[in-house]
Amino acid sequence: MPLLETGRRVRDRWTHLSDTDAPPDEAAPVTVSLARLTAERDALLARPGDLGVRLPNAAAVADLVGLLDGDTNRLGLIVLTFPAFKDGRAYTQARQLRETHGYRGSLRATGDVLRDQFFFMARCGIDAVEVDLPESAAEAAWRSALDEVRSVYQPAADGRTPIDVLRRHTAPGREVAA
Amino acid sequence: MYQYDAHDQALVDQRVDQFRDQVARRLSGDLTEDQFKPLRLMNGLYLQLHAYMLRVAVPYGTLSGDQMRVLAHIARRYDRGYGHFTTRQNIQYNWIKLEEAPDILADMARVQMHAIQTSGNCIRNVTADPWAGVAPDEIEDPRVTAEILRQWSTLHPEFSFLPRKFKIAITGAPNDRAAVKVHDIGLRMHRDPDSGEAGYEVIVGGGLGRTPVIGKTIRRFLPKDHLLSYLEAIMRVYNAHGRRDNIYKARIKILVDALGIDAFRDQVEAEWQALKDGPLTVPAETYAAIRARFALPPYDEGLTGSVSTLRLDEAADPALARWIRANVAPHRVPGYGIVNVSLKAPGQIPGDATASQMERIADLADRYSLGEVRVTKDQNLVLPHVRLDDLPALWRALDAADLASPNVGLVSDIIACPGLDYCSLANARSIPLAQALSERFADMARAQDIGELHINISGCINACAHHHVGHIGILGVDQKGKELYQITLGGRSDDNATLGKVVGPAVPADRAVELIAGFVDTYLAIRHPGERFIDTVARTGTAPFKETLHAAA
To answer: Cross-referenced InterPro entries, in alphabetical order (chain A) (predicted)?
Structure first.
């Protein structure tokens, strides 16, 4: 299944460990389940290699933040889960991580990820997706999905300027053309 | 009437192109029906019993004459010549072809309309007092807030895949004409007793459907600049914790009830701390800028009088006098009235209007009502700015289009969902029962004597016609393949919102008509002078009415 990071098709550099696998070597970037991170926190954080976590969508972001002593940037990747496309809990997790807790690493959407969700995902700060699309079509799908609606009303995690801010910074009589 | 600026227009235009592409991908087979379903639902397109149904948003129920003409055009060009106004101030069309839906959206976009989020598990069209901006008891025009909420909720990045649909209503007046206590979030504007500043009481977890609940106050007074950050905090707690394992337990009312309002409030407050005073703050200049976009042509100056003191010439024109008494309400501007247009002529399908009727209303709005029309949650229309001296001419014009039934708020002003005639969820038909009841109570003089009485008929437990809060509520049920109707008494959706109580077993349609006629007779026999039906039920309880039940059996 293609993996897109900021819209580019990439090979996954991360090793996703089960709860019993040992890391391939000290420097290898690995992800673990939230349960394993909780159980082996000190050892995992002490490794020189990058660390990521796979976050169930029912998990409280505040608990993960607590586990990391408030510094989410000790992680390089947080894998979010969409068990079904209708289950939108991970959108809230994404925005809490980015906007409330200042997380700057990668946020990856996995599970039932559809092209028509890319817009919402990107707005919530998700920069990577595993999506069931033909390899050749994936990059174009990301680009077009993000470009379909360019005007947004809400401040969110993607840095787009909301319409209300545009309005307030547009002198009266000098409206931005459609 | 809110006028889009270039940004609002750009978003709606982009959305039309996006949906056109989604429909093309569905028709070519690139999208499965399962994948397409949430996309079409977010554009108001349902698959019903016979065809696609398109629900068009009428934000907070306000329309211009030009917009109404486009609604008529859609009815004629893409449907079967009529549309159905709903209890959420929207309009829906029942005979839509999927391949034409993008063209319909494009036609609507040209007059600043859309169908965004009229269905799906997202924040739905925000509803408001249909007399907003013109009611004499108003603190502030709630449409300014409703428009800010429309913008904030449109394609919301975080709240487009909620556990379940989410409905917000707002009233700007102490007399609640928006049923704010039976919405997922209800906002009631009021003034802070100390500072005199206007703000919101925030009510959460109300709702009808399978589990009717009266909403609870989560915050007594929310200053206006915190509107969006506070609502975002509520939505965030709901999105994270609302149940997703059972569709019937997924509304916010279930979460609020499970946690208790105090624990729910604590969670919202904790989330709010992260959001408060951030980019979601709504500055006074935003309120002012949105308000300015509602500007109307000026009222005529120098007029005097109010409809409540108008001298009516009963002898010369009793029908006109009756219509004015029932359908015209006082306006905040001297010399003007609020004209309520009934879509409930005896035997008519509640809320239905033909393309010609819509065009007639549009023309009359342009001529007599500063170009503005409203849609009400009671499935009627309103011409909100009519000069009192224009009333006779307007009445004659409405009457010619069968739109002058003098029954607004009366027994024959029946609220009904589409029911089993159209809807795939329904257990029973609503429309024929509504027609039978309105014919039974067709005597308008008697209806005025009976006075205010709301009958609401829902064809299933989803309660689209708000039967729990009808003074007389009727719920269609299916018992062993028979269509039966369960009757409740004493419900109301005003500031004293109450759920009705069941009286007797479910009965067939003809028996329901007889029983309701009996309830009305009982009321007439036992009412105190000046007492409305709902007040009598509140005073006596359902006992005297149950006697009717036995007597008539």
So the answer is: UCP030820 (IPR008318)
